[in-house]
């Protein structure tokens, strides 16, 4: 616009400019507002989903404590179906896997653990699920798949002694006693003596090695 024009010319020029650009300006403003409020709505929705998933998980835990398995299964399945992206879903699948093992439904337990592993949100949950799945596979004599699972570990962390013991269990199940003994020895070397499974692991190693580790 010409700043030296008369007031009337300025008004006419402004009208013309608004006619040509006003609609796009309004659209831009509305788009900006929609992004702002839409983004806020998305955050609010995610917060609500997290709260709902947490409540559902708490109800599932309460049902398990009360031995109300029907309610526990219902809440677990709700988490798996409706809150797949939450960390609670994998935990729910793990609980269902444990129920399946107790009922002797090993195939169902394996399916739940495989789902939990696929949807694990943290390396800690992934390691817990993987270790349980490997135990199920060894129990089912599916040694090849168990071996593959153990080679796929990337973020071992504090689970190094767990995986070492599992390698020993897998080797022992296949009659490879020397490899099993070596794996158990490796596990004992890095497992704290106060760990809950330390005594049992020591017994497994001593039975294979034929030595009294405590005397060494």
Automatic annotation (TrEMBL):
GO terms for cellular component: plasma membrane. One of its GO terms (molecular function) is protein-containing complex binding. The keyword Membrane applies. Gene3D superfamilies: Tetratricopeptide repeat domain (1.25.40.10). It is found in: Cell membrane. Keywords: Cell membrane, Chaperone, Membrane, Transmembrane, Transmembrane helix. It is a single-pass type II membrane protein. Its main location: membrane. This is Ancillary SecYEG translocon subunit. Belongs to the YfgM family. Residues 15-209 form the Ancillary SecYEG translocon subunit/Cell division coordinator CpoB TPR domain. SUPFAM superfamilies: TPR-like (SSF48452).
